[in-house]
Amino acid sequence: QAKEQGRNTVHYYSLTLNQSCMSRLKLAGLLQNALENNELTLYYQPKVCLKTGNVKGVESLIRWFNPELGQVSPADFIPLAEDIGLIDSIGSWVLESSVKQSKAWQDQQLNLSIAVNVSARQFQRGEVAAKVVGLLEQYRLSPDHLSIELTETSFMHNAEKTLSAIKQLSLIGINVAIDDFGTGYSSLNYVRTMPLSQLKVDLSFIKNIVESVRDRKLVQAIIDMAHALDIEVIAEGVETCEQLKLLLEMGCDQAQGYLFCQPIPAGQFEKWLQDVSQAHISLISHCQLDG
Ligand code: C2E
Ligand code: MG
Ligand code: MG
Ligand code: MG
């Protein structure tokens, strides 16, 4: 799978389409205990502002290290967690851990907002907004230090509930982004109905913008549409200087990708922020000049 490429550090346990039911069952069994066995952790990937080179926010991305399986990709286990009813407990853990981390960074005078992935399935019980409000109060975190990325990893059975939760979150000042924009089940309908702050253009659209005029025009159209509606655009999966140069020309607002930084643990990220992030201001101008 394309998403798996470019990761050089860990060997991934990967599910194939013809996986046996046994392996799924086994994975489900191991996932049941992952939380209490402390096998889950969050990694962070910066979102780089293309106008200033600054990092205003990071995305939290869940990681599962199992002693038997090694590292399992969230692309494999999040859909499974949704299917077997574990997404609520895992999702709550992700939310609370992200809020805690965000608060810790505030206390260190690091002005970062953490974006949390929330799957459509999590909205079905209708408790996400209340949970977020409770966590912000508990950790005394202001809403601009947390944002939500709505992923469409599952078919939206209850769009109404999702919409009302998104509206509540937006009212209390939480920014909402649509993730993987363009690949989803009803992307334009989201744009039409939801109070969105950001669109994240799926990396599959970014992948070929250098070679494909068609893809480039499509991304430009997404950017123009979003800007007309006062929505910011983030490009996902930016890996090369050539891609960055084009995105700068197109007026894209932010970028995320291996070109800047892979998802890494919080401590490593703090170090990256100190050591490397200044280099991105020059990286951006370098790409602008001769990407
Ligand atoms: P996503 O939210 O769209 O996250 C972006 C994915 O692209 C991440 O994969 C990230 O590691 C990867 N990525 C970042 N930069 C690059 C790049 O330059 N090139 C390439 N090829 N890939 C890049 P990851 O971490 O494996 O996560 C996969 C998906 O799993 C996420 O896609 C998200 O939908 C889901 N996910 C991850 N963490 C959570 C979570 O805490 N909760 C929920 N509900 N879903 C999550
Ligand atoms: Mg995301
Ligand atoms: Mg995405
Ligand atoms: Mg994705």
From TrEMBL:
EAL domain boundaries: 24-277
Keyword list, A-Z: c-di-GMP, CBS domain, Hydrolase
Domain of life: Bacteria
MF (Gene Ontology): cyclic-guanylate-specific phosphodiesterase activity
Acyltransferase as UniProt keyword: no
Protein name: cyclic-guanylate-specific phosphodiesterase
Species annotation: Nitrincola nitratireducens
